């Protein structure tokens, strides 16, 4: 099983923007409903492969995507 | 309830939906108006009337279901440690959109919950409403894709989150004490209600499960369109299946367009009313039911939406914007158009790159 990390956002807009930014760099990401274990928020989150952790954090910051939290698997 | 926590993520959404459907049919059987076992818009409107915020005599009653929904979510969130007082994300826009969503719902005569309950009672007018609702969500998604956001909420002191749940408790006490300043319908939909205890319990059960499952009608369709994920949408289908089955069992199922309870068959404005609801709910990030649940979790942004919906209900009846079983008025049509334009302007201007 690959190491899926989850990013949560303050607004759906930033989830969509994050997906766009990361897909442009050919990273393997997908949008999923926020896992219930992470939050009672009903929004959308982004899942990515843990090996890309540093790159994802940097790309999101560089592109002004506001992130609520980046969650490790089973966090 | 027998299921406490399902290992399958969609499981609890489906259980919640099935219970909403079952209780929706049961509450009608026990006295609520036709296809109105639960309706967040109609019931907030009835509460507004009962508090004298509008004077349409047939629709004034303090609906314990609403109190139960908020308090069920409130108690559950306190118990699970998920209660968090938050707010400050565009409160006035939320108030305004809440009011507009209410007006749209009262032109159709139902919130998204009642839309599905009506469909499951055989009321085919709700098909037009579903089309409008999905259309409105689609338009809302276009704004989300173009940078729409209401900004982020910040943490607040706990007392902020307690206010609306406690007001709900106070409203329930008014129903029990029945002081002279409260209006209670003696005829019409407001006079038809299930026993208080049953209504309250139904609200508490759904409030609890909706808090656990994040059940949301607008969110379900949004996720289906936007990220092709059917997780929340499963709940929507579960409500429809369950309410249809129990309506048939209770002898309440009657298929057709005409002579449906608390409904009209003006297709255009059933469509347009729910288009406004779908659009407004998507900009707000949740349908009216979801706003009640988030209010219970301490979210004062959602509480602003709820207060806006109550105010909207007052205007809807004072200005004759709400439809009657004879259909919408010219005022209704003008109000829905203004509402849609307002949502579009907000959707274009409240952006962040």
Structure characterization notes:
- The complex is a heterodimer of chains A (75) and B (353).
- Chain A is of the alpha+beta class and 75 residues long.
- Helix content of chain A is 31%, strand content 29%.
- Chain A has two helices and four strands; from the N terminus they run βαββαβ.
- Chain A is globular, with a radius of gyration of 11 Å.
- The mean pLDDT of chain A is 86.
- Chain B is built from 14 helices and two strands.
- Chain B has a two-stranded antiparallel ribbon.
- At the A-B interface, helix 1 and strand 2 of A face helix 8 and helix 9 of B.
Q: What is the count of β-strands of chain A? A: 4
What overall form of chain B do the CA principal axes indicate? Answer: globular
Radius of gyration of chain A over alpha carbons? 11 Å
Which spans of chain A have pLDDT < 50 for at least 5 consecutive residues?
none
Poorly predicted tracts of residues of chain B: 1-7
Distance between the termini of chain B: 46 Å
Spell out the helices and strands of chain B N to C. HHHEHHHEHHHHHHHH
Shape estimate of chain A: globular
Mean pLDDT of chain A: 86
Q: How much beta of chain B, percentage-wise?
A: under 5%
Largest interface: A-B, 20 and 31 residues
Helix content of chain B: 55-70%
Report the sheet-strand fraction of chain A.
Answer: 25-35%
> How are helices and strands ordered from N to C of chain A?
EHEEHE
What is the residue-mean pLDDT of chain B, rounded to a whole number? Answer: 95
Strand order across the biggest sheet of chain A? 2-3-1-4
How many helix segments of chain A?
2
Oligomer: heterodimer
Give me the secondary-structure category of chain B: mainly alpha
Sequence-ordered SSE layout with sheet pairings:
The complex is a heterodimer of chains A (75) and B (353).
Chain A: E1 4-9, H1 12-24, E2 29-33, E3 44-49, H2 53-62, E4 67-71
Antiparallel strand pairs in A: 1-3, 1-4, 2-3
Chain B: H1 9-29, H2 40-50, H3 64-80, E1 86-87, H4 91-108, H5 112-119, H6 125-145, E2 154-155, H7 158-177, H8 196-213, H9 217-227, H10 233-249, H11 267-284, H12 288-296, H13 300-318, H14 330-349
Antiparallel strand pairs in B: 1-2
Helix pairs in contact in B: 1-8, 1-10, 2-13, 3-7, 3-8, 3-12, 4-11, 4-13, 4-14, 5-6, 6-9, 6-11, 9-10, 11-14, 12-13
